[in-house]
Amino acid sequence: MLHPLVNPGRLGGGLMGLWLLLAPTVVSAQEPRLDVDAVDRPVTAILAEISANTGVVFELKTDLTTSITLKLTDEPLSSVLRQVLAEHDYLMLHEGTGSERRPSRVLVMARRASDSVAVVTEAPERPQWRELVVRRQGNQPFIVAGQINGQAVDLLIDTGATTVAVSQELAQRLGLRRGQARQINTASGITVGYTTVLQRLSVGELQLDNVAAIILPAMRSGRQVLLGMNALAEFELNQRGDTLVLRHKHSDPLP
C-alpha cells in the first residue's frame, strides 16, 4: 500500500508489476539510497513509490501526465528526485543538518520556463534563506516561471536592465495602472515608458512586494517580462557558467 501523499487523488491508480524497484540501502541514519528501474511509467506513479519507501511528502501543483524511462542503481534520494523531476520546476525542503540532512517535502510547481529548469531548495547553512537555481541551455537567457499579482508570466533575468519592464499589451492583460511618462534609454534608443507598481512579484516560489516597474509601449515580448536590477538587487546573485543562483532572506513561508 502507498503511503499517503498530499493530494493523493491526483496520482491516479495503484502500482502493479515489477517495473519500478526502489530498494533503500541502509546508510546509518543518513539520506537513503535507491534502485530505480522504470520503463515508460508516469512520473506520479514513481513519486508515489518514492513516498512509500522513504516517507517524502509530495505536493503537486500540476497534473504530471508525462511518462519517463529511468534506470538508477544505489543512487542517493536527492539525486533520484532531481532526475525524476528533471523536466519540472520544484521546491525541495530538507530536514536535519550535516550528514543527517535529507529531503522531506517536495512541492512540484505548475510549469517551467521553456529554456530553463528552476530548482528551489533551502540553503543548508542558513535555513532562513531560500535559493532559486536557474539553469539555461546554451546561449539562451536565464528564464524562470513567475507571477505578477497572481498571474503567470515568464521572467527573463536581465542584469543590464535597471528596472523591471513590461510590454503595454501584457500590462493591460495584468491590469496594471499606467503612471507618469518617463524617457527610457534602451538598446534601440530613447523611448517613452510609464511607471507602475507590481503589488506582488513571484520569482519561482520567491516573492517580492510593491516592486516598481516600467510599461513600455514599444516592447514586444508576449508574456515575457524583463526582470531588471531594481528587483534583482533584493537577491544575492551568483552565476557559475550556465547556472544562476538567487538567494533571498525574506521570502514568504511555504503554504
Describe the protein in words.
By secondary structure, the chain is mostly beta strands. Among the domains are: 8-87, no CATH class; 143-235, Acid Proteases (Cathepsin D, subunit A, domain 1), CATH 2.40.70. Helix content is 12%, strand content 45%. It has helices at residues 43-54, 77-84, 168-174, 229-232; strands spanning 33-42, 57-60, 67-76, 90-95, 102-108, 116-122, 130-136, 143-148, 151-157, 164-167, 181-186, 189-203, 206-216, 224-227, 236-240, 243-248. The strands form three sheets. It has a seven-stranded mixed beta sheet with strand order 2-5-4-6-7-16-15, with helices on one face. Strands 8, 9, 10, 11, 12, 13 and 14 form a seven-stranded mixed beta sheet that branches. The model is unreliable at 1-29, 113-127 and 251-255 (pLDDT under 50).
